[in-house]
Amino acid sequence: MRVPERLSVAVELLGVRPDERVLEVGCGRGVAAALMCERLARGRLVAIDRSAAAVAAARARNAAKVDAGRAEFRQLALADADPASLGTYDGILAVDVNLFWTGPATRELAVVGQSLRPGGRLLLCFAPPRGRAVGPLESALLRHLRDAGFHAGAAQRPLADGGTLLAVSARHRTPSSDESAEHGG
């Protein structure tokens, strides 16, 4: 199966390390999950999606990693997740998950903030249809992340099909990092 370029670029940008815990939001049929599992020699992937059919397909695609205890797939909407039962992660990835692009995603970003370990990273990627302006999406998302307590930056990557991948990386602000910034540290 050919891996969509936006997924391979997103996984590369997340920079999954072998011993990390990673959460994928909106895992679909498990293609990006499979790419991340290849990198997780000692780590673990948890992937969620609202669709039962997508979760079943992702679980089947990644059956060896599921059987080895390296991957878990759950039917769950991020807004419905309890951060305490979801766990904590070194990295969280979402590719083409519209809720982040269509509104402030206040509840979802709160769950993400509580689910990131100190120093953990969030990567939100979106490949809009060709001809759609990326700038307004980027501005809105950066504003939503800032309002939710994240430091964030964005980059646009050209794709071979002529499209663009908007990649927004973020880290959750912590009181200690905010205090040190206020005191010149």
Describe this structure as you would to a colleague.
This protein is of the alpha/beta class and 185 residues long. Helices cover 39% and strands 28% of the residues. The chain has helices at residues 5-14, 31-39, 52-61, 63-67, 83-86, 99-102, 106-115, 135-147, 175-182, and strands at 21-25, 44-49, 71-75, 89-95, 116-126, 150-158, 164-172. Strand 1, helix 2 and strand 2 form a beta-alpha-beta unit. Helix 1 (5-14) runs parallel beside helix 2 (31-39). The protein is globular and about 45 Å long. Residues 176-185 have low confidence and may be disordered.
Cα-based radius of gyration, to the nearest Å: 16 Å
- Please identify the top-level CATH class: Alpha Beta
- Determine the CATH topology: Rossmann fold
Q: What's the CATH architecture?
A: 3-Layer(aba) Sandwich
Give the helices and strands as they follow along the chain: HEHEHHEHEHHEHEEH
What percent of the residues sit in helical stretches (DSSP H or I)? 25-40%
- How many runs of DSSP E, i.e. beta strands? 7
What is the tally of helical segments? 9
Broad structural category: alpha/beta
CATH superfamily: Vaccinia Virus protein VP39
Query: Could you give the order of strands across the largest sheet?
Result: 3-2-1-4-5-7-6
Q: Give the total of domains.
A: 1
End-to-end Cα distance: 49 Å
Mean pLDDT: 92
The coarse silhouette is globular
